[in-house]
Amino acid sequence: MPLKPLLLSALFALPASAAEPVLEARAKGAVVAKGSAAELSARVATSRVVVPNPFLGGRSKPYEAFPAAALLDALYGKDWRDAPSGEVAFLAADGYAARVATAKLLEGGAWLAFRDLDKAPAWEPVGEKNADPSPFFLIWEKARTPEAGYAWPWQVVAVETTRFEDAYPHLAPAGAKAGSPELRGYSLFRAHCVKCHGLDQEGGKVGPDLNAPRNVTEYRPKDQLKAFIKRASSFRYTQMPDHDSLSDKDLEDLWRYLKLKAAQRQKPW
Ligand code: HEC
Q1: Which of 16, 96, 128, 142 has the CB geometry, 3.0–4.6 Å to 92, for a possible disulfide?
Q2: Residue 8 covered by a domain
């Protein structure tokens, strides 16, 4: 009987899986998801990846790793892909933050390594200061080196992104039903337009605001507006790109979304 508390405390003292390092996914400063490499690999398939490591003089080395984009999908849902900042921060234990463009992460050569396959369970140190890259190390295939503009943060303990709806809380079509043209138009707007255009000054600033002070559906005839969005270059020499891939239904839904937003202005401009 007196043995029991001893045994228990011995159990609690054991590091085992409790001490396994965890990757945190943060948004707006809060932790929205987290998991150890083992937990995450139950959700995202890992691969053995051999990359020339610029922090080992370019020597090729095998790691076990998560495809970065699929891992971020699992942590955040697909929203991170159109994060308005266009960046994901990889945060190291010492507070260092490497900001990596979303577009680069979507190119397909980015991996978050969690095991050194030459030295496991240890890690071969990297860089001039012989740093231990664990627990997570962002590595890249295909000559994507720091000199080429690709960051290789090590000792990563967290990732952070800004979710679209956190950064642009007023762009959603309030009251639109699931499957409605307005909601579909909103997702097309997010995918194709918001990087350049805002509504009520929320969104991109490359092109004009489409809702303030007046909504574009109020002063452009519908057919002309749809034709312009599809092929602006047939109207004028402009920075506005053509959107030949948008179907008639897409253009109609975009119009419906913009039209609805006219009735949902944030303030009388
Ligand atoms: C790469 C940046 C960019 C993207 C992406 C873009 N636009 Fe534009 N857009 C512009 C710029 C710059 C202008 C202003 C120049 C012009 O009107 O020719 C413009 C003009 C417009 C206008 C004309 C407004 C007016 O009253 O004349 C409309 C409407 C418009 N864009 C809608 C859209 C929609 C809808 C999308 C998404 C399908 C989109 N744009 C995507 C840059 C962009």
Answers
A1: 96
A2: no
Domain termination residue (choose one: 97, 130, 164): 164
pTM, entire model: 0.64
Q: How far apart are CA 72 and CA 12, in angstroms?
A: 32
| pLDDT for position 163 | 66
227 lines ligand 1 (CB under 6 A): no
Please give the angle made by the CA atoms of 137, 83 and 192, to the nearest 5 degrees. 130
pLDDT mean for each 10 residues of the chain (269 residues): 40 52 90 95 97 95 98 91 80 85 91 96 94 97 88 95 79 95 94 88 91 97 98 96 95 98 88
Q: Is the CB of 83 under 6 A from ligand 1?
A: no
Tell me the CA–centroid distance for residue 236 and ligand 1, in Å: 12
Residue nearest to ligand 1 atom 40, measured at CA: 193
Query: The tokens 């011995």 sit on which residue?
Result: 10
Residues 31 and 118 in one domain: yes
Three-state SS string over the chain comes to CCHHHHHHHHHHHCCHHHHCCEEEEEECCEEEEEEEHHHHHCCCCCEEEEEEEHHHCCEEEEEEEEEHHHHHHHHHCHHHHHCCCCEEEEEECCCCEEEEEHHHHCCCCEEEEEEECCCCCCCCCECCCCECCCCEEEEECCCCCHHHCCCCCCCEEEEECCCHHHHCCCCCCCCCCCCCHHHHHHHHHHHHCCCCCEECCEECCCCCCCCCCCCHHHHCCHHHHHHHHHCHHHCCCCCCCCCCCCCHHHHHHHHHHHHHHHCCCCCCC
* CA pseudo-torsion sign 227, 233, 235, 239: positive
